[in-house]
Write a structure and sequence with these properties.
Largest sheet: 2 strands, antiparallel
Strand content: under 5%
CATH superfamily: Winged helix-like DNA-binding domain superfamily/Winged helix DNA-binding domain
CATH topology: Arc Repressor Mutant, subunit A
Shape: globular
Radius of gyration: 17 Å
Distance between the termini: 19 Å
CATH architecture: Orthogonal Bundle
Length: 157
């Protein structure tokens, strides 16, 4: 997963940027503020779902995106606008939403992360479905940890 390694490098602070002191505690908001340029957790959710719709071969529209995420269409419209500003999607008013190359790459990683964590939590909890848990934690685990969980699962299962 070369793309995952590239995402890891992109998520690391540049020289001169604030890096958290690993011996100090910060609030969740404090850590988030140190991640310059990171998209929000909500943006990740929308991009992940848009990628899932894209993978299924169906066109991505505000209506099916909103329905898939159980939100109102105006919320989906606002979020697509935010994703567009980040260069992850293109769209026309009342038209289809298209993922850019960067949107496809990040969307693919977000689905990979989700599926890896779901598989891991199902394994350790001996259950069939851990969707709620995955949704609650997936945004807070970095690429390196996801890749290590994948390696662990590959050796265990």
């Amino acid at each position: 997963m070369r793309a995952c390694q590239d995402l890891l490098l992109l998520s690391m602070p540049l020289m001169g940027e604030a890096m958290p002191d690993n011996n100090k505690f910060y609030t969740l908001k404090g850590y988030a503020l140190m991640e310059a340029g990171a998209i929000t957790t909500s943006m990740e959710d929308y991009l992940e779902m848009a990628y899932r719709i894209h993978q299924s071969g169906h066109p991505i529209r505000i209506g099916n995106l909103a329905e898939s995420l159980n939100v109102k269409p105006p919320s989906a419209t606002k979020m697509i606008s935010n994703l567009k500003k980040e260069g992850l999607v293109t769209s026309e008013k009342y038209g289809y939403i298209n993922l850019t190359a960067a949107g496809i790459e990040l969307g693919k990683y977000l689905v990979f992360r989700h599926e890896t964590l779901h598989r891991f939590l199902c394994y350790i909890n001996q259950s069939e479905n851990e969707l709620e848990q995955v949704e609650k934690i997936e945004h807070f685990i970095n690429v390196e940890t996801v890749m290590n969980i994948k390696k662990l699962l590959d050796n265990l299962i």
